């Protein structure tokens, strides 16, 4: 059931719930761990296997709790259908394959993608015969040149890039991709459907590491791809062969997280803006990357795409003159902000991109992208902003 005339906060509470199931309806979708399903008639089973009837036969083909999550995320992203995976990386891999990246084709992708995505496109796919050209997607002329010269199967970008928080011009990139015959894939993990829905801007595949804001509590790993029903069928056929489907317990946790997505995102955005503003005025901070700051190159574009909803919960900053040791010292001195390798949680988290999320890049590649050793990524939690700032202040005082 879709509720597209309702506000995002309302839909995030109810989306995907209460699928028709007999003579009673649980308010929240139960966890269905069953691997097998039985039907009175083998004809029913046959029709489900054949795709003529909706139903369940085996979890690699789909299962009810996972379907509920898929319906919910598809609804929040304004898509026809979604497919859930065991992780964001599994989702990205499947989406690239479904979009046609295979031997003899190629990709054009943003230079500052999440490290593992960059490595997948820079190392794994080239070995399989599908190379990638990387471009700064904020330079639309460079994107067009790359598309024109390589005629790739896919163009891939992140709405808000990790960890430099560059803003991708989704409508312009979608138009360019389609003009040159490419599918446009958007990793929307940092922004979430709270800020905008890339399908409305022309994207073909919207991908989430649901491990982050969608689930939101740092207790589940999951990935979701939202796309057309036709493309979803390609993902289904693929996972029937290779697996990677999300499990029902994780789907249930992710769905529970979704209900507070609007509340959490509002708070993440408010906290991030306050922290970024404070950091930008700090004498020991050389640079703050946050699109909510008026001097960020993507500020106006983010305003156009996100309206008045905010600029996301993640920022990054460079400690003036800091090398890796100084960045580590700062992170160890924090008492409230947790130096844990994730983002988008209720907890405030810090990470050192050069040695974690972007470790797979060579030092030269990191330098090219602009990820220096003094760079720290901060994902603001939903704590009180003053407490986050006080913790950063005491840790910076030691630098
Ligand atoms: C932007 C982005 N995309 C994808 C991923 C991969 O997601 P997962 O860790 O759920 O596989 C991450 C992980 O940090 C990420 O930050």
Identify low-pLDDT runs: none
Radius of gyration from the alpha-carbon trace, in angstroms:
21 Å
Q: Helicity range of the residues? A: 40-55%
Work out the helix count. 15
Structural class by sheet pairing and helices = alpha/beta
Ligands present: pyridoxal-5'-phosphate
Physical arrangement of strands within the biggest beta sheet = 1-7-6-5-4-2-3
**Shape, principal axes of CA atoms:** globular
Distance between the termini: 54 Å
Instruction: List SSEs in N-to-C order.
Output: HHHEHEHEHEHEHEEHHHEHEHEHEH
Beta fraction: 5-15%
Overall pLDDT level: 95
Query: What's the main sheet like?
Result: 7 strands, mixed
Question: Please, could you describe this protein's structure?
Answer:
With 399 residues, the chain is of the alpha/beta class. The chain is 40% helix and 13% strand. It is built from 15 helices and eleven strands. The strands form two sheets. Strands 1-7-6-5-4-2-3 form a seven-stranded mixed beta sheet, with helices on both faces. The protein starts with 7 loop residues before the first helix and ends with a helix. The model has no long low-confidence stretch (mean pLDDT 95). The structure holds pyridoxal-5'-phosphate (PLP). Pyridoxal-5'-phosphate (PLP) is lined by residues 87-89, 114, 116-117, 158, 162, 187, 189-190, 209, 211, 221, 223, 357.
Outline the fold blueprint.
Layout: H1 8-14, H2 42-49, H3 64-77, E1 81-85, H4 88-98, E2 107-110, H5 115-127, E3 132-135, H6 140-150, E4 154-158, H7 170-179, E5 183-187, H8 192-195, E6 205-209, E7 223-227, H9 229-242, H10 248-258, H11 261-280, E8 285-289, H12 299-306, E9 314-319, H13 324-333, E10 349-351, H14 363-369, E11 375-379, H15 385-397
Parallel strand pairs: 2-3, 2-4, 4-5, 5-6
Antiparallel strand pairs: 1-7, 6-7, 8-9, 9-11, 10-11
Helix pairs in contact: 3-10, 4-9, 6-7
